[in-house]
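Sequence, please.
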């Protein structure tokens, strides 16, 4: 890994806490839980949760995707952007499904509630699922712009 790749791995995930802080600042007054906190507390909490989550996701999801793209010779910006967007949407859908599976299990409900909730989210609240995809798109584009894998020869050559 080059020095640029390491810098990209450090800088690119910062989009998640930045977007979370922006969302918290914009919606804190209308949220029943966040409205009880001061703005400083809400921002600190979102940074304390968002930054570690971003680096953990980059380590578990982003690094393997980057290595797979590099191994396949896909070094243009488009595969990084598309994979970032798809990863964000898939992670969000997985999170929603996990929460609803847990809810259904604890309350003795049928498992098909998960499918209904995901389809309702897609039909009635698409930004709930697409916003993480947009953050993933920003992370993928930022990673590519800093690391510039198109400028380096693959390791096997």
């Amino acid at each position: 890994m080059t020095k640029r790749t390491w810098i990209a791995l450090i800088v690119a995930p910062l989009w998640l806490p930045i977007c979370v802080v922006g969302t918290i600042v914009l919606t804190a007054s209308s949220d029943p839980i966040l409205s009880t906190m001061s703005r400083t507390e809400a921002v600190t909490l979102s940074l304390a949760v968002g930054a570690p989550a971003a680096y953990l996701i980059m380590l578990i999801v982003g690094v393997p995707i980057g290595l797979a793209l590099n191994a396949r010779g896909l070094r243009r910006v488009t595969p990084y952007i598309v994979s970032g967007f798809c990863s964000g949407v898939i992670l969000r859908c997985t999170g929603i499904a996990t929460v609803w599976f847990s809810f259904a299990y604890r309350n003795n409900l049928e498992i098909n509630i998960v499918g209904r909730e995901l389809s309702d989210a897609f039909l009635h609240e698409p930004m709930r699922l697409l916003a993480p995809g947009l953050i993933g798109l920003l992370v993928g584009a930022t990673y590519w712009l800093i690391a510039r894998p198109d400028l380096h020869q693959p390791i096997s050559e």
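The chain has one domain: 3-151.
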